[in-house]
């Protein structure tokens, strides 16, 4: 077996039973009356130890109590300050409320006085109106009666005027009917005149084609003079609406003859306009025309015997064609 240690040594390895056995041997070896190395506490030592523990506990208890008392005292001081603060706040709030109540009372009192004054004024005005109404009831009644009497006196005269107005209205109706009849008669006369004019045909020296008459001048004048000539003869410088009309004109022009057309760009260069200012899609310009040639340009159109057009200077003296539409 391994060795075991004694009371102050160490064991390498030892069973508990062996340990107990060793202890018993040592007790037997020890002389009687000698105290063993591991004796239990004596009662006196236990009591002394108990007293010490009690003293320590008392001291600890007292320390705790003192600490707690200090804490309670601090809390009490805090509560006291809070109560004083609350009382101070309450006093301040009460003072403020009193001030507000006082100011509101004064304001309300002022407003009530103003309202009372207004009510008094309204009451007086109502009283005045009522007094005036009472007075007017008698006076106005008399005035109305007077007016009714005047109207009753004027009634016969008004009836006469009314009858006259009715007669005037009837006369107007008759005049309107006569006017309508005259208009109808005028329309009939115009239609008969137009029919007679159509049967009569174009004036002497004018050529008829489609719904127009054409005058081919034998004189030669500037474009503006030619235009005025046509206007003075209830016509206008010729306006070519289509190829048929252009062909008709060309057939009446012999070689080497040219005639003014009612076409120019005098108002705006390049913007060719017929004398009635209406645009037409048909054009028959010669090749390279209109070219606005020359120093002064070319702003008035002529027609050749082949039906082609050219622009030349408007001051040139040329023959012209007037057109009069039915
Ligand atoms: Ca024409
Ligand atoms: Ca031109
Ligand atoms: Ca030209």
Question: What is the element layout, followed by pairings?
Answer:
Layout: H1 16-29, H2 43-200, E1 207-209, E2 212-216, H3 223-232, E3 236-237, H4 243-251, E4 259-264, E5 273-274, E6 300-303, E7 309-312, E8 319-325
Parallel strand pairs: 4-8
Antiparallel strand pairs: 1-2, 2-8, 3-8, 4-5, 4-6, 6-7
The structure holds calcium ion (3 copies).
Model description:
By secondary structure, this protein is of the alpha+beta class. The protein has a domain at 204-325: Mannose-Binding Protein A, subunit A (Mannose-Binding Protein A, Chain A), CATH 3.10.100.10. Helices cover 59% and strands 10% of the residues. It is built from 4 helices and 8 strands; from the N terminus they run ααββαβαβββββ. Strands 1, 2, 3, 4, 5, 6, 7 and 8 form an 8-stranded mixed beta sheet that branches. The longest helix is centred in the middle third of the chain and has 158 residues, at 43-200. Bound molecules: calcium ion (3 copies).
């Amino acid at each position: 077996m391994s060795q075991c240690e004694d009371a102050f040594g160490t064991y390498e390895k030892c069973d508990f039973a062996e340990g107990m056995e060793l202890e018993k041997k040592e007790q037997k070896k020890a002389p009687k009356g000698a105290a063993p190395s591991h004796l239990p506490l004596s009662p006196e030592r236990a009591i002394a130890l108990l007293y010490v523990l009690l003293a320590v506990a008392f001291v600890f208890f007292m320390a705790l109590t003192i600490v707690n008392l200090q804490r309670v005292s601090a809390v009490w001081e805090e509560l006291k300050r809070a109560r004083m603060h609350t009382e101070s706040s309450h006093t301040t709030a009460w003072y403020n409320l009193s001030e507000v109540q006082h100011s509101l009372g004064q304001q309300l009192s002022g407003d009530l006085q103003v309202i009372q004054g207004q009510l008094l004024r309204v009451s007086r005005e109502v009283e005045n109106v009522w007094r005036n109404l009472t007075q007017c009831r008698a006076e106005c009644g008399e005035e109305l009666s007077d007016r009714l009497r005047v109207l009753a006196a004027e009634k016969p005269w008004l009836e006469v005027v009314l009858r006259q107005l009715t007669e005037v209205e009837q006369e107007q109706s008759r005049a309107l009917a006569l006017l309508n009849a005259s208009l109808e008669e005028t329309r009939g006369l115009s239609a008969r005149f137009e029919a007679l004019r159509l049967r009569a045909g174009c004036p002497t020296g004018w050529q008829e084609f489609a719904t127009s008459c054409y005058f081919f001048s034998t004189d030669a004048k500037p474009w503006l003079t030619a235009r005025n000539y046509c206007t003075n003869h209830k016509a206008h410088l010729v306006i070519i609406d289509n190829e048929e009309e252009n062909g008709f004109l060309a057939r009446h022009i012999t070689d080497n003859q040219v005639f003014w057309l009612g076409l120019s760009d005098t108002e705006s260069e390049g913007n060719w306009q017929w004398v009635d200012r209406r645009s037409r899609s048909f054009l028959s310009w010669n090749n390279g025309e209109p070219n606005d040639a020359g120093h002064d340009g070319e702003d008035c159109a002529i027609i050749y015997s082949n039906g082609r057009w050219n622009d030349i200077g408007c001051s040139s003296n040329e023959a012209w064609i007037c057109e009069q539409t039915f």
